[in-house]
Amino acid sequence: MVVELISVGTELLLGNIVNTNAAYLSEKCAELGMSLYYEVTVGDNEERLLDTVTTAINRSDVIILTGGLGPTQDDLTKETVAKALNLPIVEDRHTRERIENHFKRSNYKVVTENNWKQAKIIEGCKVVDNQNGTAPGLIVETQEGKRVILLPGPPNEMIPMFENDIYEYLNQINPNVIYSKMVKICGIGESMVETEITDLIEAQSNPTIAPYAKSGEVHLRVTASAPTVEEAKKLVKPIVKELKDRFKENVYTTDEAEALEDTVVKLLKKYDLSLATAESCTGGLFTGRIVNVAGASDVLKEGFITYSNKAKKKNLDVSKNTLKKHGAVSEQCAKEMAKGAAINTGSDVAVAITGIAGPDGGTDEKPVGLVYIACFANEKVTVKEFNFKGNRQKIREGAVIYALDLLRRCILNNYK
């Protein structure tokens, strides 16, 4: 079934409110196996809203509107949908009683006249009680088989209503479910990933493969539609296996909830390894990503932020000669930082990052964005040189991602 989302509210168009409702409903519709082709935001204007609703009814099976069900004059959703469907507005006694009881329980004992506007519904619709507010949800089923669902705009009213009532309603009317599996790749770019799977994408029908470029990563979502979850899983499984076979150790997880740092901490625990970190240009961002993972205290021994040359010499035993001859941003310095962090803390593995994050400080020989990342593992040090583009924050974040990936690969290559 094709579903369309319409978010109503001028405040959304002005950017006064972030449209979290659309993101939530998009995810839920995908979970239900519904095809979301259109997502529209329209202001509190009857003419434009009427045009939007009419267009949606003509091209989609299910239309979900959020917002515009309140008591004020600019709340036009219900009235405009009724006009589009050529249906009258009538008062619902049940909803009127609920509004009365709501105000009796609240601090506002007097019900102002405009609140009774919310007790009016589209004739023949199904009323969905609002357990967290006054405006009910409405489900209109047309003779042509279309479903128009009206939900309140506030997320603390809309989300419980959707989860308690609308989700099951949609689940019953939709013949298929959708199942997805995410293949997360690190260390190679989006263009290379797409080139490697061109044949799969060109031949795809069900399941489908959708690439998503992330900072330093590429995620491939494999999605299948079937009458049951079990059947959809069977369709997805061979495609995921093929992707893992093609990208090998570039794939770090197929768990959508698992981040790169989660994988790294899992590997450290699996092989009973302790970790030390030494950061210069990233200033603790790398260690922070590790600490974000629950249970990081089992593997992380110590972290150093050695921003100055003096700190590098004092805490990591970087030699004065190395700093003088090669500089703090060099392969040699990164190597000594990693080794010094491991030895001085008694850790099994260590990661070191040193570079020029900018915007100043770069030269022709060592431009802004030049970063060296080193990993000490199994008594050996691996050093990689990177040239990141972008502003200071982007360079630092890129360095962290590639440092996590280097650590992951070093663990696999040395302890697997």
Automatic annotation (TrEMBL):
Q: Which InterPro entries match?
A: CinA, CinA-like_C, CinA_C, CinA_KH, Competence-induced_CinA, MoaB/Mog-like_dom_sf, MoaB/Mog_dom
MoaB/Mog domain residues are: 4-173
Its family? Belongs to the CinA family.
Q: What is the recorded name of this protein?
A: Putative competence-damage inducible protein
Instruction: Tell me which species this is from.
Output: Anaerosporobacter mobilis DSM 15930
| Gene name of the record | cinA
